[in-house]
Amino acid sequence: MLPLLLALLPLTLASPQDMEHNLLWENFKTQESKLYSSVEEDAARKEVFRSNLARIAAHNLREEAGLETWRMETNQFADLTGQEFEDLMLGGYVKTPQSGGGHGARVAATDLPASVDWREQGVVTDPKNQGSCGSCWAFATVETVESYAAIANISLTKLSAQEVTTCTPNPQHCGGTGGCKGSIPQLGYNYVQLFGLTTDADYPYWSGVTGMTGNCKYDLEKRAPVVSISGYNTLPPNDMEATMAHLATQGPLAVAGAASSWQLYGSGVFSGCSYDRNIAINHAIQMVGYGSDPSLGDYWLVRNSWGKTWGEAGYIRLQREAALTCGTDSTPMDGTACVGGPGTDQQHVCGMCGILFDMSFPLGVRAFPVL
User: Fold this and answer.
1) In the chain, N or C: fewer CB atoms in 10 Å?
2) What is the pLDDT of residue 8?
């Protein structure tokens, strides 16, 4: 009897809050299929989880009081510290400095629709999950090519993020050393221009599970590319009107953002990037529209690559200010400059989380082969 009483003693001494945290922890591990290598790692992750629960609760109290426009939630990243989250999920993006980008004739803001959502046009595939691989740049590339292929009346098909991740060379180390270690959509576009792009069914994504880039399986005689492009273009940096006009009249955009503070985003219009602090751009995503929330204000509609269960079914709404608002990325080598290239000291970035700084899109998307 005594051993049984001693075994039950910790449970009887546990506070109601501890019991609730223990239950939430067990539910979290089950829901997210979390497996740890040892009892010690489980205990360490549990403490990180407990700390994040406190962050979430404190933030959501501010949201309920009307002091925030977005809510946090417990998601697949709730057992990671902020630094671990950055190391695992971010850093796979660097901007190649451009001459200013090409753009068409200006469209007056008053002539633009109040809202745009390219999902409604049936040209956006479901949100994908890059997993444990810094391949956000490849997903931004592939997702944008998918959208422009559909706009060009090529059937909407899930294309191969694995091919772009594994096969795109990065000799100048732009955004990292390539593959899961980071690159840029511009290099992804260059690859698709040269070799075309096959479907996800033909070359499925597995780097998210292994965390490894792998070896390119490119073989023109055996693989079956389905689309090609003639090149790519960029919008002028930090140009809000050009961004809205392109979204309204042309299509989605591959964009860059400072995503370190997105770890526990759950819903609402995100306003958590401070213009007074370093806006460290470190993530590539796809912007598919803009709009206004009756109570939360104007926003940019951004599709992420962290799965459908993250955020608002895989999306985040970023605050869209009425006037261009800017800050500084003082660590561009962490995400916005190539090794040995220009712009390695600091860069002027605008929009919430620097979302207006770097935008690109493919040109001449067409079925492959081109006869």
Assistant:
1) C
2) 45
